[in-house]
Amino acid sequence: MNAVLKISLALAVSIWMASCSQLDSGTPKKNSAPIAVTTAAKPPAQVDAARLLHANNEPGNWLSHGRTYDEQRFSPLTQIDADNIARLGLDWSFDFPTNRGIEATPIVVDGVLYVTSSWSMVYALDAKSGRLLWQYDPQVPKQWDVNTCCDVVNRGVAVWKGRVYVGTLDGRLIALDAKNGQPVWSVQTTATDKPYSITGAPRIVKDKVLIGNGGAEFGVRGYISAYDTDTGALVWRFYTVPGDPKKPFENSALAMAAKTWKGTNYVTMGGGGTVWDSMAYDADLDLLYIGVGNGSPWDQNIRSPGGGDNLFLSSIVALRPDSGEYVWHYQTTPGEMWDYTATQHIILADVSIDGAPRKVLMQAPKNGFFYVLDRTTGKLISAEPYTKVTWASKIDLNTGRPVEAADARYKANKSSGVLFPHALGGHNWQPMSYSPQTGLVYIPAQEAPLIYAQQKGFAYNTKSWNTGADLAKLGLPDDKTVREQLGKIVRGHISAWDPIAQKEVWRVQHNNMWNGGLLSTAGNLVFQGNSDGEFVAYRADNGTRIWSTPTYTGIVAAPISYAVDGQQYIAIAAGWGGAYSLVSGELGTRSKGAVNRSRMLVYKLDSKQQLPIPETVERPLPQPPTQKFSAKTLDTGHTLYMRNCMVCHGDRAISASSVPDLRYMSSDTHAKFDAIVRGGLYWQRGMVAFGDKLSKPQTDAIHQYLIKRAHDLLDGNE
Ligand code: CA
Asked: How many Å lie between the centroid of ligand 1 and the Cα of residue 216?
């Protein structure tokens, strides 16, 4: 089982990104049906408080990220159902002019679809025809990629009173005029001298636009901000970890949180706790729920020597949306040190438990347990593992705390042993869906192990990842048999989960992990795109696979459904990418969809459009120089590659993403290697200079390792 530990860690200092293809206009592929202009009746994006509060009464629209404030991602539309699904076909598609990961949930308001692609680019499309109405490119500097852990993705926009709001990778929040995509205001929500990024979708509550950020792999202090939708003025900010204890705390909640931290390393290293994805709002209780991320650094021995719970890491926190005032929290992973974020999708539902009506909050965070909380109080109702879990045996319902495995906490000279789940989680950002019709939560779950080990001689460095866990120890070994064994273990599945009984009702097993988010509909359907390049429908009640279509690219985003002129559509933003695609190397290449073709795909009954079948393009053979290496240099080169390059270019120099596979470097690239890596020759494409971090002998060792890997490839030895 020792072999199992050699799995690639999935997070990503970005070094070398694929150059974004020319950012010319995207290409709509139009339906043969006549195009009706459906948007002329009223100004676009007229979404207000009343509409958002009653979004469930507008099944034809998808007004906010999770469709309704409770983020259930359930469509009440019934025109497409389990009996007529065979008639579902492609109606239109729209090619995004980018080639990195696509994670966006589209918003649909009165016949207009608003969606984002990688690099925080925004598109308004006619939801019936796919015609491009406008597009907006915030011109994110490509070199900001180096400050992102998990691809240059964006998970979507929010709309409100004629405007469209987007958070950009480099930390801006921008309000666009929904009529033409022109910026109305733009604010920098983060310190530009720190490695913050925004990939999450904003939410809007009562004339405030809410936005968090990411960066906890590098070393930042997490927070969520509320801005005035009209002016862009900051209304409030809630930090999720305490600041310098020598200075006054921002509020009493942080004074309480500070008692759960030790030392002051977290002050200089950031502490983490970024709010990079999930939120939900309960108007009756007037509570905003946020999901909080992992510690920074991961290793608690460094971050908070001597332990402590380290609030509010890996917690769900309830806030007052008007003021940002703290109301309650529930911490899923006290003293977090495995990248077990609680930023995963939060769903609110009103259910009956033991005959009593309960207002619950549900989450399947990375740590592998499915939590049901009373969202009035934050008290834990139940928690059970939804995937393979070994870091803890259970969650104690009396204390609300996990019962950790004896060896789970790694420290100096002692690794964690094989732990499930992996740092990429039993479930990551890919949205779940809750059907009030079946009472089931559909979870895009995954099964993967990791061994965590402390990095010897770790020193905090503002220009790199700062997990404290050694990236060099986390890749696959050269032993082919071991790699094949591991490949059988690392997989994904859909779990249809009964949240009341806390048990799985049915499961669809996938061959590979990192599949798409989910949509359930009142037509007894569940939709999911997968990493093998398929878009698939299952019966919601029993999981039977009843429809599929090829997409020629892996899908990680979640589908939506909407209607225009009485016609129901199913829509998905397709395009392989994200953290796993960057780091996974050989494991990622097993997915048939591990190639990025970014496009919006929209389906309806009785349409028969076809996507062009992609031509197979032969890749030029590697052109490595002939060279002899010492085993010691190769070992050094491998270690340095894993710590500095792997998080973008992939484990063992095998790329499963659009980022260049360095084994295939041309003779010209080999000749320029030092100018590129240390000199920053390609900085405008995102490959920034590493000259102040790596010495010439170090990059020489990396280069020799890459030359060796190119020869491996030519020799037929992957
Ligand atoms: Ca993380």
From this structure: 6
